[in-house]
Design brief:
Acyl_CoA_acyltransferase, binds acetyl coenzyme *A, alpha+beta, Aminopeptidase, 38% helix, 423 residues
Length: 423
């Protein structure tokens, strides 16, 4: 492309901005840190919409605003620019028509209509489906909770849902059979394309999808008001696959917490709620995860580790039985014990192996050469099984070297995860 034409290129991730909008009356109640919830943010990916290069051609000063009513997620679209290239030889990209294929057609382009809609929605919108959980967090820096939480999610012990300093977060479970949910899902699914690498829309004709949505719930600030407003934070979708002979394997497919709410512990709360839900369902054999992003893998590891520890795994007398070179009896005892615990907690085999290896490392006395060697052999034996096909084609020397390298990087990663989980 010539230099002149390059001037007409915009980065689509920067040009598109998103915003969750609540009624002005409900914005006033937000403390400084919480204002993030209503500020504009950018997508991480736009290639599914605007193409692999994430560029839009034909405009200068391009600004695409897609705003969402914070609860109902009804949308407002505005496309503005300083100038547009008008050349039949090099036509400008169509923006609205392109976006139209990905969002429901009932968006508005009228600011006035949108503010009326937000006003109405914020007092009327209620999450769809069945409430399955909630937790409270101190309002970010109110005078009473000063220094207490700094916006962190509390463990829910000090605050009650009706405490005036509490902000409540609620989770709702829905399926396609939940009245109105299909339409609602069409409004929220855009976040999958914009924030999950390789994310794509689910097929609405697959019947069994299950969803958990997460909302911030706040009381309208007016003194005599008894209106509670709900603001979308994120969601997770799972699909049950048949698992021989008469159970299902739940596959976590999509998981997103919107940027204004990230790094505040909400992802962990949503994941652990899904986890305890599936533990309580007798028909579920295990929870698997489809193509996890790195940040999600970390979140899952942290939560699974805390779960196992809080359920007393470190105090189990069989925790370190049969590690490394050991007699037949203790090895078979280990296999039996691992299989029982894994099935009880419905964790997939590879994930369970990794979690146990991390916990064994956590308990290991690194100065004890003998114990360290046992641990190394234990991890290497699993890595060998896991990578058998590749390793079996190597010479003995190459194999040793490859295993040693993999071991080093695996242990380094375990140390990183342990540090952020138990620091
Ligand atoms: C199968 C799949 O769908 S994979 C795709 C996963 N989704 C995506 O990648 C979409 C975009 N990203 C996201 O949606 C989110 O960033 C997620 C889901 C990956 C993580 O959700 P979050 O709510 O940010 O996670 P959470 O806040 O629980 O933990 C993240 C960080 O916050 C920190 N944190 C946790 N609790 C708190 C707290 N109470 N206060 C402050 N920080 C906290 C954690 O230490 C963690 O930081 P670290 O990873 O550097 O240690």
């Amino acid at each position: 492309m010539s230099e002149d034409l390059a001037e007409w290129l915009s980065d689509s991730n920067e040009a598109l901005s998103l915003q969750l909008v609540r009624d002005p009356e409900d914005e006033d109640v937000l403390y400084a840190q919480e204002k993030r919830a209503i500020e504009p943010f950018h997508p991480t990916f736009t290639y599914p919409i605007f193409g692999e290069r994430e560029k839009i051609f034909g405009y200068k000063g391009l600004d695409i605003q897609l705003q969402f009513a914070s609860g109902s997620l009804r949308q407002f679209l505005s496309i503005t620019y300083d100038s547009k290239l008008n050349s039949p030889a090099t036509p400008s990209d169509e923006i609205e028509g392109t976006l139209y294929k990905f969002i429901p057609p009932d968006y508005t382009k009228s600011e006035m209509d949108f503010s009326k809609l937000v006003e109405k929605d914020s007092s009327e919108f209620k999450p769809l489906g069945e409430k399955i959980g909630s937790y409270v967090r101190p309002a970010a820096t109110s005078s009473k909770s000063k220094g207490k939480g700094k916006g962190k999610v509390s463990n829910g012990e000090e605050l009650k849902e009706d405490d005036e300093n509490a902000v409540v977060f609620e989770m709702y479970k829905a399926t396609w059979n939940t009245p109105g949910f299909r339409e609602y899902h069409r409004r929220m699914q855009l976040f999958i394309l914009l924030f999950i690498e390789g994310g794509s829309y689910v097929h609405e004709d697959e019947d069994s999808w299950e969803f958990i949505t997460l909302y911030e719930k706040r009381k309208r600030p007016a003194a005599d008001s008894d209106i509670w407003t709900y603001h979308f934070v994120g969601y997770v979708s799972v699909y049950p696959f048949w698992c021989y002979p008469d159970q299902v394997r739940l596959r976590l497919s999509q998981f997103v917490i919107l940027p204004p709410y990230q790094n505040q512990g909400h992802g962990s709360k949503l994941y652990s709620t899904l986890f305890s839900q599936m533990l309580s369902r007798p028909e579920v054999a295990e929870l698997t995860v489809e193509d996890p992003a790195e940040a999600f893998e970390d979140l899952r590891d942290r939560n699974d580790l805390r779960f196992l520890v809080s359920n007393g795994i470190l105090d189990d007398p069989k925790f370190s039985i049969g590690i490394g070179p050991s007699d037949e009896l203790s090895r078979s005892e280990r296999v039996k014990w691992e299989s029982e615990i894994r099935k009880k907690y419905k964790i997939t085999q590879r994930q369970f192996d990794r979690l146990l290896e991390m916990l064994l490392l956590k308990q290991l006395d690194l100065k004890d050469e003998k114990e360290l060697k046992k641990y190394r052999l234990h991890v290497k034996a699993r890595l060998y099984r896991f990578n058998y096909e590749m390793l079996s084609q190597m010479t003995l020397e190459e194999r040793k070297e490859a295993l040693a390298k993999t071991y080093e990087s695996v242990v380094e990663d375990y140390e990183r995860i342990l540090e952020m989980t138990f620091h």
